[in-house]
Amino acid sequence: MHFPKLVCCSSWIFCFVTTKMTIHVVEVSRVTPAPDSVLNSANLLAIPLTFFDLPWLVINPAKRVFFYRLTESTREHFRSSILPKLKLSLSLVLRNYLPLSGRLISHPNEPKPSIVVSPNDVVSLTIAETDADFSLLSSYGQRPAWELHTLIPELPVSDDSATVLSLQITLFPGQGFSIGVAAHHAVLDGKTSTMFVKAWAHTCKRENTVVAPLPETLTPSLDRSLIKDTTGLDEQMLKIVRSLNDGGRIAGSRRNLSSIPAWERGDDGVFATLVLSRGDVEKLRERVKNESPDPSQLLHLSTLVVAYAYVWTCLVKARGGDMERPVSLLFVADFRERLDPPLPATYFGNCMFPAGCFNSKTAGDFSGEGGFVAAVEMLSGLVKGLSSRKIETIAEEFKIGFDCVGVTSQLGSLAGSTRLGVYESDFGWGKPVKVDIVSIERNTISMAERRDESGGIELGLCMNKAEMDIVLALFNSGLQN
After folding, report:
1. Which of 173, 167, 201, 14 is nearest to 78 (CA)?
2. In a 10 Å sphere around its CB, with 0-12 CB exposed, 13-18 middle and 19+ buried, how is residue 205 labelled?
3. Per residue in 50-90, pLDDT tens?
């Protein structure tokens, strides 16, 4: 039996005290992939980025937190029983997910960054403890944004090197624990990230953690040669990134591998999760069918389209202001099944590409009586168009979208999906009571399946409390009509 090498810096103890909560960082472990991986002491694993990865170089790290209720989670039980299983299973699963222990490297003599994994690379695992209210932070109501962010570790980035993955396990004594995940978006998308967490959970939960291999559905495909660039898409995406590096709309303010500065949350920044039941979604579909001037059978009325359109109209109405102001929105589509030939469902990396409507709509288009239906019709057209347009066309539209960001007054975007199955991540102590995407901000809407109802949907928002109050009021009142 081979056990992982865990380098635990238990003397690194930090204490962050606020007026309402305290969080102690009691240990920082450096977890290496268990033996028997494809690496040995004499070689490196280098994985080039593809045109699907490159646009995400400018996006902030993807951050997600999983909450697990465990009333017997005393310090002693947590440290003697739960934590060792989590560490061992992490080391074991990293054998299959080696790129997560590596670094994103930008070399001046290379045209684009690569993921480089050496035999000594590790994943940083922070162990923390907090006196915060577990029930509040794992709820659906308004929660302080800064408190949720204390549950997510930092993801170090320098001029030419970036950490791929950082993890944090936080104990809420007598209440439960959370697992915070911070990942560089240029290395993996939400589907890959969720697959990794499920694989970690699967390994932790099973009795024989060392011998049994991962099931095929959780074993990543690392073959980047499956994605062919026959029309110069790599160069197109690199030009977008370079324009931001060398004098774009944030000239001089960002480093080579650092992302666009995130929205600065004030002390009144809050998260909230809006819920649409299956009945709510069906009610909204019927509203579109009754009010749309176009034959409703031609519209793509998926849960994603209906829910996104509904929340987007609430956000535009809440912002108010000049109804002639330009607004734009986008969403990302998974192209694994849209390529020819299709990629494996377990392909490791980004295979998401943004599609959107840029600089052609005004706030007034979504604020009136027909605003919700107009948003549905527009999103329906975008989704249906994915099957008829080539990836090169969508890439060109993505570039147009970047050019429009500086002139639009409000840009909506979507993170996550109802198809990821985030609530399937059971480490052996039950499925999560709540999962939140913490990297959203203002007009970004997170999306996930509803935990306890098939066909329902959870929609996360993060903004100032005054704005959130208005959005929630509009959201609730609209469902009562």
Report:
1. 173
2. middle
3. 999 998 988 889 999 999 999 877 899 999 999 999 999 99
How many CA within 13 A on the CB side of residue 13? 5
H or E, element range at 328: strand 326-334
Count other Cβ atoms within 10 Å, centred on residue 136: 14
159 is catalytic: no
DSSP assignment of 55-77, as one string?
A: GGGGSPPEEEEEEEE-TT--HHH
Q: Within 65-184, where are the H helices?
A: 75-77, 83-93, 134-137, 145-149
Q: Which of 185, 202, 334, 436 is catalytic?
A: 185
In the chain, the amino acid numbered 251 is A
Residue 29 has phi, psi (to 5 degrees) of -100, 145
- Pairing mode, strands 176-183 and 165-172: antiparallel
- What tokens does 120 get? 């000594």
Judge whether 121 and 102 are in contact, CB under 8 Å.
yes
Rounded to whole angstroms, the Cα distance separating 442 from 464 reads 8
Structure tokens at 201: 């959970």
Q: How many CA atoms lie within 13 A of 169 on its CB side?
A: 22
pTM for the model stands at 0.92
190-205 and 83-93 helices, crossing angle to 10°: 120
Compute the distance between CA of residue 469 and CA of residue 38 in angstroms, rounded to an integer: 52
Looking up tokens 């915060």 gives 132
Q: How far apart are CA 104 and CA 184, in angstroms?
A: 9
Say how far apart CA 89 and CA 105 lie, in whole Å.
27
Question: Which is the catalytic residue, given 131, 133, 365, 426?
Answer: 426
Q: At residue 88, what are phi and psi to the nearest 5 degrees?
A: -60, -45
- Cβ burial 371-386 (10 Å sphere, 16+ → b, else e): bbbbbbbbbbebbeeb
pLDDT in tens, 88-144: 999 999 999 999 999 999 888 888 899 999 988 999 999 999 999 999 999 999 999
Give the pair of three-digit tokens for residue 95: 């054998």
Q: How far apart are CA 479 and CA 141, in angstroms?
A: 17
- If you search the block for the tokens 């709820």, which residue do you land on? 139
The answer, yes or no, to whether the previous bond of 55 is cis (omega within 30 of 0) is: no
pLDDT digits (tens, 9 = 90+) for 180-216: 999 999 999 999 999 999 999 999 998 665 567 899 9
Would you call 184 a catalytic residue per the annotation?
A: no
Query: CA 245, CA 239: separation in Å to the nearest integer?
Result: 10
